[in-house]
Amino acid sequence: MKLTRRDFSRLSAMTALAAALPKMEALESGLAAQKFCWGIVGLGRISMGHFMPGVELSKTGKITALVSGHREKAEKQAAQYNVPSPSIYSYENFDEIRQNQEIDAVYIALPNSMHAEYTIRAAKAGKHVLCEKPMATSVAECKAMIEACRKAKVKLMIAYRCQYNPVHLKAIELIRSGAIGQVQTIESGFGFPIQAGEWRLNKKLAGGGPLMDVGIYSLNACRYLTGEEPGEIKANASTIDHDGRFDQVEENDGWTMKFPSGILASCTTTYGGDTGGGGFFKVHGSKGWIAMEPAFPYQGKHLTAHVGDGPDVDMPEPDHDPADFVRQADHLAECVWGNHEPKTPGEEGLRDTEAMSQIYSSAGLKGL
């Protein structure tokens, strides 16, 4: 058989490709097996009950370290997640995580006033950070967190889980598509009757009352639903139940916002009343409306909408807890591996904190 130069070139290329295939398959297998390693800072309800199970269900994550002030609790969690004993840290020796190559990022689920300190320490240790909301208890702290992560060249993501949720994303899509026409007004609320003894009633730990805890969901929702930053903010705060729970923080907050387009938003949050177990929002447009109730719980969200000439929308949340936490864990891993910014970076938390500072100032309370 006589081979032309072209035939010889093709045969050589095929031979080279066949030789490379095992290496390519090995590379793909290695990437598939790669895990993003998490250190959990603070073993409370949200970390143990939601985020850690979410990491276990994620396609990317693995829990490899724990930070807690309670060694016995940490050892029980370590046994459950196969975390080696040397990778259990206290708050005193937290900075030693620098030497642990089996930690890619930390999830910070501490009381609000501790977010800044441990984000900055984690950044100095070279670890990426997923920090629970609210980002911090002051605007200055938020800026310091952003700068520390920028300087250390690590990612900083704030855990705004609703911004990764498909039902919330559908609401945003309906608004952006013009399905309900021009948005005119938004109403939102979230609250629950808080029990005495909660750390959230300690101003030093929480930074404020229900606004810092559940009110921030309504604030953040108004921002991502409109795609705008609030301009004028007016607010009031009150305490009705003088039973000792609210000696340090307010019981109720209510505020209005005017956005640059003219959209008006009215929000309330409470530690004394019940808003249905998961909060709500309703968006009124010139051609229809969108409502979500409950809007902010870990599962069971329900979107309904009347969209003018189109069919009405009735969309219960398809997923169950901890799906929101799975999405967050995978998102940060993908941002680190792909070297791009998270959807909810530190600047997103800063903007909410700036708005909350204005709300408190308008209500006659000390700003953040």
Provide an overview of this structure.
The protein is α/β, with parallel strands linked by helices and 368 residues long. 39% of the residues lie in helices and 21% in strands. The chain has helices at 5-33, 45-57, 71-81, 115-124, 139-152, 166-176, 203-206, 210-226, 323-338, 346-362, and strands at 36-41, 61-67, 88-89, 105-108, 128-131, 156-158, 183-191, 232-238, 252-258, 264-270, 280-285, 288-292, 302-307, 313-316. The strands form 2 sheets. Strands 8-9-10-7-11-12-13-14 form an 8-stranded mixed β-sheet, covered by helices on one side. Strands 3-2-1-4-5-6 form a 6-stranded parallel β-sheet, with helices on both faces. Residues 1-32 have low confidence and may be disordered.
Brief descriptors of the model:
alpha/beta; 368 residues; 8-stranded mixed beta sheet; 10 helices
What is shown here, in short?
With 368 residues, this protein is an alpha/beta fold.
Helix content: 25-40%
Judged by helices, strands and strand pairing, the structural class is alpha/beta
Per DSSP, what share of the residues sits in E-state strands of 2 or more residues? 15-25%
Helix segment tally: 10
Q: If you average the pLDDT, what whole number results?
A: 92
Q: What does the overall shape look like? A: globular
SSE run: HEHEHEEHEHEHEHHEEEEEEEHH
Poorly predicted tracts of residues: 1-32
CA-based gyration radius: 24 Å
- Please tally the β strands and state the result: 14
